[in-house]
Amino acid sequence: MPQHDTDRGAIGPVRRRDPVYRTVTRMLAFALSPVAAVVAPGRARQTACRWALAARFPAESLHGLDPAARAAFEAARTRALWTYGELLGLTSGHRDRQVQAELFHAEVQRCGSATEARRWALPPDESRHVAGTAMDVRPTEGARWLERHGALHSLYRVYDNEWWHFEYHPDGPPPRLPHPGAAPRGTLYRSVRAMPRPDRSRWAERAASVI
């Protein structure tokens, strides 16, 4: 969960250096394509995209994401880079229960109450980050792109006050909520665990087919 100041949910202006980052990263992806074609025949574009974005966002990690959610996210960022010239980085994906508990506790301390804290963070039992199906993305242009095009990959913005937070919902768009605490308590995480698991190979094939 990105840390913001007073207007935490507002999308900030485009930074002057961001267009430069986009251009350089896309040029790097083009340069890496011949090598990617040898290393990963049939998946050169996605592989070159992954390598280029790893250079742009070296601290990010997709480890722990639900396999179908990860496949959808990688397909979306590949399409964003090659077709639209947009970068889509991951600020935070999967979190273990302890990390999520610490984040929620810190938010309680900052806000002064658990009720207010739930506007920005959820306890581990209710967090889709713990389930591995939530992604906090960057930069703002990438988030705008994902909000417009993410449905093709079953990725949706869920909260009005968190422009960076997207979730994988293969069964269709979830309700748009004003903030995380607006959902009935205890429903988010359990709904992911309780819902029938889709055929992950089928969803991965669907995600890859739209690259």
Indicate the topology.
Layout: H1 18-39, H2 44-56, H3 67-84, E1 89-92, H4 97-111, H5 114-117, H6 128-131, E2 134-138, H7 140-149, E3 155-157, E4 165-168, H8 188-194, H9 200-209
Provide a descriptive summary of the structure in words.
- The protein has 211 residues and is an alpha+beta fold.
- 49% of the residues lie in helices and 8% in strands.
- The protein has helices at residues 18-39, 44-56, 67-84, 97-111, 114-117, 128-131, 140-149, 188-194, 200-209; strands at residues 89-92, 134-138, 155-157, 165-168.
- It has a 4-stranded antiparallel β-sheet.
- Helix 1 (18-39) crosses helix 2 (44-56) and helix 2 (44-56) packs across helix 3.
- It is globular and about 55 Å long.
- The model is unreliable at 2-7, 189-198 and 200-204 (pLDDT under 50).
First-residue to last-residue Cα separation: 28 Å
Mean pLDDT: 87
- Profile the largest sheet: 4 strands, antiparallel
Estimate the strand proportion. Answer: 5-15%
| SSE class | alpha+beta
The rounded Rg comes to 17 Å
Strand neighbour order, sheet with most strands? 1-2-4-3
- How many beta-strand runs? 4
| Topology order in helix (H) and strand (E) letters | HHHEHHHEHEEHH
Low-confidence stretches: 2-7, 189-198, 200-204
Shape: globular
Q: Helix count, per DSSP?
A: 9
Residues in helices, as a percent range = 40-55%
